[in-house]
Amino acid sequence: MRIGIFGGTGPAGSGLAARLASIGEEAVIGSRNKYRAMEVRDELIERWPELADRLSYGDNHAAAQCDVVVIATPWDSAATTAHAHAADLDGKVVISMANALVRVGSEFQPLVPPRGSVAAHVQAAVPGCRLVAAFHHLPAKELGNITHPIDSDVLICGDDQAAVEVVAELVNRIPGCRPLDAGELSNATAIEAFTAVLLQLNVRYKTRVAPKLTGIRPTAPTAPTTPTTPPAPAADPDAAAAKPGAADPSASEPDVAQPVAGT
User: At what angle do helices 11-22 and 34-47 cross, to 10 degrees?
Assistant: First the structure.
């Protein structure tokens, strides 16, 4: 799969590009200026020579030609950047990882963009794309340090369940990450705003935090879409599988990805 990244020259975008290339995906670092994208790509290859075959660069138009597109631009240009490439994004899985935040004194505060979240604003700007919100809380520095796993849950939400599953499968292949289906796209408002809390914890405790939720049991593998044999009737109608317990949030180890990265 080829994955293009709008705003791929910032800390979050470039870190994600390196991480995706490290798990075997072809990542295209996009930018308004393709020469800036080339510089970032060269910097990553200098650090990780083994990624040379899977990391490429171009302008945002080149990134928009990929199978999946990630929006890692500053939050206030996410929707306009996506709208400028709406024809190329139509029908594609598009991942929004931008957070609308502002720092007031020593505090981080979430902003409420049009439509309630950056993700919903992008979906409204490109109604034909299959928008999924994800990757908001991963520490940017750790994201780009491919020699170490990231011990974090990744909250994913979207209105297209098939698109959510594509992103969840991608997240599941990143060492240390666990994808969690957080419901419909309307929940992106809370997910994006929670980033302000994580950043505040980073400042307060001089660390880099990532969210880890407890109480969620592993789910069984998804059944094939076209089973070769019909399902057998239940042997005991009284037997029932135990239901997962409610999630109990707890912070885990130590920079949250701030997709306020430069383009």
Answer: 50
Residue 255 to residue 244: CA distance in whole angstroms: 31
**In angstroms, rounded to a whole number, what is the distance separating the alpha carbons of residues 203 and 254?**
12
Query: What is the percent of the chain with per-residue pLDDT over 90, rounded to a whole number?
Result: 80
Return the structure tokens found at 189: 């408002």
Tokens encoding 209: 């935090």
Neighbours of 125 (CB within 10 A): 20
Q: What CA–CA distance (Å, rounded) separates 63 from 96?
A: 14
* Distance of alpha carbon 41 from alpha carbon 58, whole angstroms: 10
Q: How many domains does the chain have?
A: 1
Cα–Cα dist 196/221, whole Å: 34
Q: Give a yes or no: residue 234 inside a domain.
A: no
Domain with 82, as residue range(s), is 2-216+241-252
What is the reported pTM? Answer: 0.83
- Which residues in 196-217 are b (16+ Cβ under 10 Å) and which e? bbbbbbbeeeeebbbbebeeee
- CA–CA gap between residue 109 and residue 139 (Å, rounded): 18
pLDDT of residue 249: 36
Q: What is the pLDDT of residues 101-156, one digit of tens each?
A: 999 998 999 999 989 999 999 999 999 999 999 999 999 999 999 999 999 999 99
Task: Compute φ and ψ for 146, nearest 5 degrees.
Answer: -75, -5
CATH code, 17: 3.40.50.720
